[in-house]
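User: Design a sequence. Structure:
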């Protein structure tokens, strides 16, 4: 049945510098007196302590720079998955984009279409091997594989949920398998829930009283977010874009004796522009 709502480990860092030779005694042919030994020992001690302090500052600074520039959201000790994609981090304010807000319309459908461009991309055999020895549908030219990035799947799911909110607009022109659509949306909700928990936004938000309500304060985020540079990432994806027509289909032997199987690819085609 149709939905009720029809409205629509810190690593070793090679320092490269030699140990500093402190307080060498040039009077090697004679035994220094006690006072000289005491004085020499003190200079050695304080010199060594000073150098150790400088080394701690240098190593600590390098470790902080590496951690914040490579992946500011990564938990120390976690193994980051391999990706050939360029991951560039930027600080930015999160602002609402009116193209993706409001009721369905051509402008919105076009914005989603452009956002999901490059969903399927090409990977080399070496890149598949680096990604935990993975495999995927092969490209028709035999030189690589077709797959995608997690962000594309999550965006696809978010779009599918939005379309589910307006079934008359997106699904009203023909008969639909509402149970299948509901199952897809359920899968998408759980996928996005897991993705949000995995990359939990720990930025502080505050509560501000405004004139819009006496019972519900507005939220404010006082700091910029650390975000992946989407423009750089999508440009890379578009440079590797692939299509269903470039994908080698399934082995017919997978469906021997099964007369009710769906022969179409698992990733569904867009229903909008």
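Assistant: Done.
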């Amino acid at each position: 049945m149709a939905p009720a709502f029809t409205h629509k480990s810190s690593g070793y860092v090679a320092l490269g510098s030699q140990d500093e030779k402190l307080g060498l005694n040039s009077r090697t042919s004679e035994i220094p007196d006690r006072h000289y030994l005491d004085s020499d020992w003190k200079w050695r001690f304080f010199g060594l302590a000073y150098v150790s302090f400088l080394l701690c500052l240098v190593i600590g600074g390098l470790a902080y720079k590496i951690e914040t520039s490579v992946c500011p959201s990564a938990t120390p000790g976690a193994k980051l998955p391999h990706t050939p994609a360029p991951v560039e981090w930027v600080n930015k304010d999160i602002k609402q984009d009116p193209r993706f807000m409001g009721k369905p319309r051509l402008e919105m459908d076009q914005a989603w279409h452009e956002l999901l461009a490059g969903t399927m991309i090409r990977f080399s055999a070496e890149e598949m091997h680096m990604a935990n020895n993975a495999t995927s549908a092969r490209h028709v030219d035999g030189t690589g594989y077709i797959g995608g990035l997690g962000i594309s799947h999550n965006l696809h799911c978010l779009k599918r949920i939005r379309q589910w909110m307006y079934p008359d607009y997106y699904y009203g022109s023909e008969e639909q398998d509402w149970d299948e659509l509901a199952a897809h949306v359920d899968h998408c909700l759980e996928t996005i829930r897991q993705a949000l928990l995995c990359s939990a936004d720990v930025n502080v938000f505050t509560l501000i009283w405004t004139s819009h309500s006496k019972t519900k304060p507005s939220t404010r985020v006082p700091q910029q977010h650390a975000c992946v540079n989407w423009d750089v990432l999508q440009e890379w994806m578009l440079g590797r874009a692939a299509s269903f027509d470039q994908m080698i289909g399934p082995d017919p032997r997978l469906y021997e004796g099964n007369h009710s199987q769906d022969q179409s690819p698992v990733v569904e085609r867009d229903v909008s522009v």
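Helices lie at 34-70, 106-115, 125-130, 150-164, 167-171, 178-198, 230-238. The radius of gyration is 30 Å.
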